[in-house]
Amino acid sequence: MLDLPLTFLHRPAAAQAPQPWLLLLMHGVGSNEQDLFSLAPYVPAPFHVLSLRAPYRMGPQANAWFEFGVAADGTRSINEPQEAASRALVAQTVEAAARQLGIPAERVVAGGFSQGGIMALTLLLTRPALLQAAMVWHSRLLPQALAAAAPAADLAGRQLWVSHGVQDNVIPLASARAIRDHARTLPLALSYREYPGVHEIRPEELRDSMAWLQGLTQATAAP
């Protein structure tokens, strides 16, 4: 039985997986751990799937990783103490889950949608020693993450998936392209995709991102 700092749902890896992986999923604002856990049947069998619940309650079954505001001119602001606290909790959860499941950092992936994607990307940029890759759907890059970023050299050998909807009406496509442009300055392997659609994971996007996950397991399989 896992004992973690955050509430979660767990789908174990396939019993026959010789080298299991760990995928941690983080939902967007106003949702909960049930949301992305619905994707667990599509996740490759070698992965343990942990879907996490954000710590700040907004309402019944509605949580957030941090509060935010959008000004009339589109400028975004966030509750920085909440973001820093959530970032620390996510790192602690990743460490604890990997330790309890016996999975090394080179087989750990953090993933998330929207605000959960922010958390996954921030974890990769600030604590790359904890994981091998991040999977970021319909999200954006926090300036606060850049301020706390690890040295670029620490990202060598890491992987990043970024995908976005061309018609996303919640987080504009420019935000994904900003992640792409920053990632290209770093020594990591970037997979960047744009898809027709709004602020949602479409079937083709899901298929491609799951194929990317499967590729991670094959690229690092023992000889």
Which terms summarize this structure?
24% strand; single chain; 223 residues; 6 helices; Rossmann fold
What does this structure look like?
- The chain is α/β, with parallel strands linked by helices and 223 residues long.
- It is built from six helices and eleven strands.
- The chain has a single domain (8-219), classed as Alpha/Beta hydrolase fold, catalytic domain (Rossmann fold), CATH 3.40.50.1820.
- Helices cover 32% and strands 24% of the residues.
- It has a seven-stranded mixed sheet with strand order 1-3-2-8-9-10-11, with helices on both faces. It has a two-stranded antiparallel sheet with strand order 4-5. Strands 6-7 form a two-stranded antiparallel ribbon.
- Helix 1 links the parallel strand 2 (21-26) and strand 3 (47-52).
- The longest helix has 22 residues, at 80-101.
- It is globular, with a radius of gyration of 16 Å.
- 40% of the residues are buried.
Concise account of the structure shown:
It contains six helices and eleven strands. The protein has helices spanning about 35, 80-100, 115-125, 145, 175-185, 205-220; strands at about 10, 20-25, 45-50, 55-60, 60-65, 70, 75-80, 110-115, 135, 160-165, 190-195.
How are the SSEs ordered, and which strands pair?
Elements: E1 8-11, E2 21-26, H1 33-37, E3 47-52, E4 56-59, E5 62-64, E6 68-70, E7 76-78, H2 80-101, E8 108-113, H3 115-126, E9 133-137, H4 143-147, E10 159-165, H5 173-183, E11 189-195, H6 203-219
